[in-house]
Amino acid sequence: MKLTKINSNKIKKAIICKHVKSSIINKNIKKIYIPKAGDVAVFKVKEIGKHTRIQSVGGNNKYILPGDLIMAAFGNRYATGQMEGHIPKSYQSTYHILGQGGAIGVINSIHKKFELIGPATLSLVGYVVNEEGGVINTKYLNNEISSENFIRIHRKPKIILSLGTSMDSGKTTSAAYLARGLNLAGKKTIFIKLTGTVFTKDKNFVKDYGARMALDFSDFGFPSTYMCSTPELLQLFDYLLEKVKSYDSEYIIVEIADGLLQRETSALIHDKKFRSKVNVVLFSSADSMGAISGADLLTNLGFTVVGTTGLFTTSPMLIDEVEQQSNYKVLTGEDLMSKKIINTLEEKLNYSRFENKMAVNI
Questions:
Q1: Residue 355 confidence class, pLDDT cut points 50, 70, 90
Q2: Which of 46, 134, 282, 335 could form a disulfide with 331 if both were Cys (CB 3.0 to 4.6 A apart)?
Q3: pTM for the whole thing?
Q4: How is the chain split into domains, by residue range?
């Protein structure tokens, strides 16, 4: 087996590979090895498309040009406003950048607004391997937590779930605004993004608005969570909760990407174990119908909806529609960023505790 050591200075490394130390690649197995999520490889840029940059290890965005070498990881992606792509089950002459943080696969479909430009295309140079020749995988890399030594967290912090109707409905913005309001109210808050595709913009945004710490799935090496099993997502959630225990937070805001109908989101909200960890839900929507329908779906599943929010709250008319056609509280950006949000939140938390107590007694 012939291994090649490459000059790391000639490679642009994506942030998903931040813990990868090896600069050894195996070119001989590229046509026979079947990649899985998290497997690291070096690619050569063929043509620029929708993605013109990658997010580097330092968090800054680096432009990529034809002929550049990049280190990234195989991963799936589901983004209704952009593209869907999967890890191929065989060698391909062309691969695509699915996410700026370094998720690589092959596109199945792309949003019409990107059809003309298309995806950035790559060729596979070789897999990054360790000294024994094993392909390096980013998942759980440099994290010591395992199922054997994991200590289950006692649910001391209140967990607020940030959900929405779809991609770009306002989930992250709402989470950031809420972190701001809780911070002004003197409350310690942590932000966790449980699902999505690697790119640190969202967690950085919420941290800037007041979260003491912000983590996401990529901190455990996941290029994306699309096509993960529910047990793996539940384990990942436990790992993320364990990692933030030392911050002694009072609230943990947990965002789940995409909408209620998306594969992983739907699986999680229908899972009893997951629901048992959540205290209340903040629900975002781009329109009034979605706000009411989504909140109804969550209420029927047993969640306590603290309020509806999102893009629709920029329209006074849409706000009126939700308030007139439902009993859900509408929370604007100003509401969420006010220290008075703690009163609304505590009221719903007390209601949630009462409902759970009644259910046990029944």
A1: low
A2: 335
A3: 0.92
A4: 4-129, 158-361
